[in-house]
Amino acid sequence: MKTAFADTLLQLFEGLAPPPGSGLVVTALDVEMPLEVSAAVQRGELVFLAQAPHSRWQAGFLPPLQRTRLRLALEE
Which helix (H) or strand (E) element contains residue 66? Predict the structure, then answer.
C-alpha cells in the first residue's frame, strides 16, 4: 500500500518521539533512509506517494529507491 509522502514523514517522526513521561526532549533529528517514491493523480491533483522499501526484502526484487535526508531542529 502506497502512503502519501507527508503521512509517511509524520509516521516516521512520530515513531522517533521519546516515550511520554520519560523526561526526554528531542531538540534535533537527522534521518537518512531509503524510500520507494512514486507520483499519482488523485481527484485531479498530483500527489507523491512514499513508503519504506519493505517489498524489496519480501519479494526479492529491487525497485527504484530514493535516499531521503531530513533534518529537523528547534529554532530559538
Answer: strand 66-73
CA distance to 13, 18, 37, 55, per residue, from 66 (Å) = 18, 27, 7, 14
* Mean predicted confidence (pLDDT) in 35-47: 88
- In the block, residue with C-alpha cell 515513531: 15
pTM: 0.59
Task: Classify the phi-psi angles of 43: left when phi > 0, otherwise alpha if psi is within -120 to 50, otherwise beta.
Answer: left
What do you get for the CA distance between the two ends of the chain, in Å?
39
Closest CA to 47 of 1, 4, 8, 2: 4
For residue 47, the SS3 value is strand
